[in-house]
Design brief:
It is a single chain. The chain is α+β, with helices and mostly antiparallel strands. It folds into two domains: 186 residues, no CATH class; 177 residues, no CATH class. It has five helices and 21 strands. The protein has a nine-stranded mixed β-sheet. The chain has an eight-stranded antiparallel β-sheet with strand order 3-5-6-7-13-12-11-8, covered by helices on one side. Strands 2-4 form a two-stranded antiparallel ribbon. The protein is globular, with a radius of gyration of 25 Å. The protein starts with a strand and ends in a 30-residue tail after the last strand.
């Protein structure tokens, strides 16, 4: 069982010693991608090649975010344990000054199909499986731009995330259709994430920023049985495939944060089901194969695992949500489903999922009173997630007689849980 009690971010001072240590650790990754893509830069990339090194001082503990520029104008971004952005000095789609557009005029010497193939080949050279970044699908392509009698011979090839309406593209590749080369590549994928390299120097904390207080381990220890009981009762009402009774042996991860004096908790079970508990209320659940949720975004997915048939209409799916809400026994004056929800579907038309949002605001239209969110698998005719929160639930902590956080100056310690 993983216990997460601390603030996930820290503010550091980027000293010269730490910056140099980061360069030593990250430059081999840049050399690797440069060799794989046969980029026109010196290889191996050494510290002498570097013209800039920008390290994010506010970062997730254990993570590393670094921007590096090298001689010749090439730039690289290293995040999540891999190089996620490669950019030449001649990238058109990051251009900021319109006065520079004429220098990109030229002749198109590649077809759309050839540009797409070059983009896929670049991913393959980097060792990235096409399915892992949805590149087995048809991309969204921005064609070469005509400006009067001139043309900018660039293609922008983008592969979109199925967990969106098609706006978010985790893969974006710019192809120079005149020189027949790659000018920019950016790729985000949980499937590519790796542990960051070890850095030989430890960055000191920035004393200008206060240290965020830790969640009290004793508070979390007393809270866990309450959350387990609430999750068991909740899942029984909806007949979810969750062990009952629940014990710490069924818990993969328990995360607690201080939400202004009352807890926000995530309980992830070893079978992949996740529950959210806030204040003293079990607010909702997420199945292991939910598509439209924060928990889906935390793991790699394959489109083929979600393909199916549309066996439910939108009205039938809404009725399924309404039935589940009724089983949970919320006060009828709190649940607001008396208006049409916002409906989200994947841009991949054969992924049969609905995501519904009922967000109710007060008479001013500015203050959120309650929200109900649910995902329905229209192939299996099953509820994949359900979340309900109401303003009346807020600021009501559970009956635990120890403080939720420790003083900021107290040394952090790891709690001991039975069965962990």
């Amino acid at each position: 069982m993983i216990i997460e009690l601390d603030s996930p971010f820290e503010i550091i001072r980027v000293t010269a010693e730490y910056s140099n240590a980061v360069l030593v650790a990250v430059l081999p990754y840049i050399t690797d991608v440069a060799e794989r893509l046969e980029l026109p830069i010196q290889k191996p990339v050494t510290p002498e090649c570097v013209t800039r090194c920008t390290i994010l001082p506010s970062r997730k503990i254990g993570d590393l975010c670094v921007g590096i520029g090298i001689k010749g104008g090439w730039g690289f971004m290293f995040r999540w344990g891999y190089v996620d952005t490669i950019e030449s000095p001649d990238s058109y789609f990051v251009l900021q000054d319109p006065a520079e557009i004429p220098r990109f005029f030229g002749t198109v010497r590649m077809t759309r199909a050839e540009a797409i193939q070059m983009a896929r080949d670049a991913l393959t050279k980097l060792g990235i499986p096409l399915e892992a970044v949805f590149a087995e699908q048809e991309p969204r392509v921005t064609e070469p731009l005509r400006i009067g009698t001139n043309i900018v011979p660039r293609y922008l090839i983008e592969w979109r995330d199925p967990r969106s309406d098609g706006q978010f593209a985790p893969v974006s590749i710019e192809i120079n259709a005149e020189a027949k080369r790659l000018e920019r590549l950016r790729v985000f994928s949980k499937a590519l994430e790796r542990p960051p390299p070890k850095i030989s120097a430890v960055p000191p904390p920035d004393l200008n920023f206060p240290k965020w207080p830790s969640v009290n381990p004793e508070y979390a220890q007393r809270l866990l049985p309450l959350v387990l009981q609430a999750a068991a009762e909740y899942s029984a009402k909806l007949a979810l495939p969750v062990p009952r009774p629940l014990s710490t042996n069924h818990v993969a991860r328990f995360a607690v944060t201080d939400n202004g004096g009352w807890p926000h908790c995530e309980l992830e079970l070893t079978n992949g089901w996740t529950f959210v508990y806030r204040g003293s209320t079990l607010n909702g659940f997420y199945a292991p194969d939910t598509l439209f949720s924060l928990y889906s975004e935390r793991r790699p997915i394959l489109i083929r695992d979600f393909v199916g048939k549309w066996n439910m209409t939108e009205s039938e799916a809404i009725a399924l949500v309404s039935q589940a809400v009724a089983k949970l026994g919320y006060p009828s004056n709190l649940v607001r489903m008396d208006f049409s929800p916002a409906v989200m579907k994947s841009w991949v038309t054969n992924i049969p999922r609905y995501m519904f949002h009922w967000w109710a605001v007060d008479e001013t239209g500015n203050d959120l009173i309650c929200k109900l969110e649910a995902e329905v698998d229209a192939d299996a005719r099953q509820l994949k997630s359900l979340y309900f929160d109401h303003k009346s639930f807020w600021n009501k902590p559970p009956p635990i007689d120890v403080p939720i956080t420790l003083p900021a100056a107290t040394n952090r310690q790891k709690p001991s849980f039975p069965g962990s």
